[in-house]
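Reply to dn_fold:

You asked what the input looked like. This is it:
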Amino acid sequence: MIVRPQQHWLFRLFVWHGSVLQKIYSRLLLNVALSISVIFFLPWYETLGIKLTIAPFSILGVAIAIFLGFRNSVCYARFNEARTLWGQLAITQRSLLREIKSLLGNHENQVTEFVNLQIAFSHALRLTLRKRPSEETLKKFLTNDDLQWVIQSHAPCNRVLLLMGDWLADKRKQGLISDVVWSALNHHLNDLSAVAGGCERIAGTPIPFAYTLILHRTVYLFCIMLPFALVTDLHYMTPFLSVFISYTFISLDTLAEELEEPFGTEDNDLPLDAICNTIERDLHDMDENEHLPEKLRPNRHYRLS
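and this is what came back:
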């Protein structure tokens, strides 16, 4: 995610890092080259007796803009739901630890053990969504036996959730937690499971490919044919107007691709590393641990991973 300070509107016009321009500039250069070629071959082009006018492109441009706007709204809805789920994860983790601390405040070592399980769950979910190995990260929070059992699963966060359930069941057997309190704490584990399930649903259910493909093809065909319609009236101004219109449509198409998968590592995806870092710092602070991990901050390009 790009986290930029407030800037003057003039400086924002020239922002490079965080814009989709760095991904599409080569395509825009091809559009400029095509426009220049059309100008160069205009005399030959006119001898063919084929003349494109602006009228059909005006109608088609409006239609493409409407459908691109709809697609971007759908993709942003996925991004927003993912952001809400991870916000709910942070809230549930804090609430769960607060209740356990109030019940087992005299058993600090056991509470710290549960804190490590909570942090392991957050990291396991993050790494699963990003399809990365989890052993190196989880070994900081789990015992060796638990670690080996967890990483054998295709969904490590589910097994960490089982460990959290076993921990609560063990304290219930010891008489440290009553049946009523155990039921309330178990409800929080169900909330964590619901968050994981919601994230897996978003990650595993992309927007129908055929719909995306239709828009993708239409946008690029529009941008390829546009210079032929503009050149008769605009002549040497064709490259400027063509690349500006192409930038608008291709940018929206590219941005939708990024937002469609909010758990990735693109500039406009969710900063899962930073969210897990915040959860880890909060839980350690609630457990009165003085050695908090360093807070993740945006890099020199304002990118927060």
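The chain has a mean pLDDT of 90.
Hope that clears it up.
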